[in-house]
Write a structure and sequence with these properties.
Length: about 200
């Protein structure tokens, strides 16, 4: 199997899922990754985001999906390990790098789109990462214009692009105070609408 597949699997499944868990934990003001993944809606969002990447990687590299899904199951179990004392602050640190074009959140989303998959759940993680980035940026307020500017500068995404629209739509919901359940339901609806080939 191609070496590049294993590099991308680490970045677009493990690292992306870990960061998504951290950023959703931030929204809930949780300290640890194990606390975040223990919230049902976080787990569903993270697991489905990882599955979006898994399907995209399987399609691109011709690697059987079953093995990647078993890898996701193992990773999710590792995220629950309280003994690791992994914090949301550490795992989600340096959000600018994690939102860069080839990194875990944007890179996995672009690969999914390239393979005909709508990254509805990854977009929730990216929006939460965008929220954290703006929180940590000196003198920057949480608003849509700043979010567009960050995506343009950091992620190299035009605001009119399909991916930017997905992320900004979720970001606006975070600003509006949507609960994680409401964010999950919104992602569910986007995903369901994209499944035109399902019988």
């Amino acid at each position: 199997e191609p070496f590049d597949f294993y590099l991308k699997r680490k970045l677009y499944i493990h690292n992306m899922g870990h960061a998504t868990c951290a950023y959703l934990g931030d929204l809930l003001k949780l300290q640890y990754i194990y606390q975040s993944i223990d919230v049902a809606d976080v787990r569903i969002l993270v697991q489905n985001a990882m599955l979006e990447s898994a399907v995209a990687l399987s399609k691109k590299y011709g690697v059987e999906l079953g093995g990647i899904v078993m890898h996701i199951t193992d990773l999710l179990n590792r995220f629950t390990n309280a003994a690791l004392k992994d914090t949301c602050a550490r795992v989600g640190g340096d959000p600018g790098r994690k939102l860069s074009p080839d990194d875990r959140l944007i890179g996995s989303s672009l690969l999914a789109l390239e393979q005909g998959i709508t990254p509805a759940y990854i977009a929730v993680g990216a929006a939460a990462g965008l929220h954290r980035y703006i929180n940590e940026a000196e003198g920057m307020e949480q608003n849509l214009e700043n979010a567009k500017a960050v995506l343009a500068e950091v992620s190299e995404l035009n605001a009119d692009s399909e991916l930017a629209k997905l992320i900004l739509g979720m970001y606006e919901k975070i600003l509006a105070g949507y609960s994680l359940k409401q964010l999950r339901l919104a992602a569910d609806a986007i995903k369901a609408a994209s499944l035109t080939d399902v019988i």
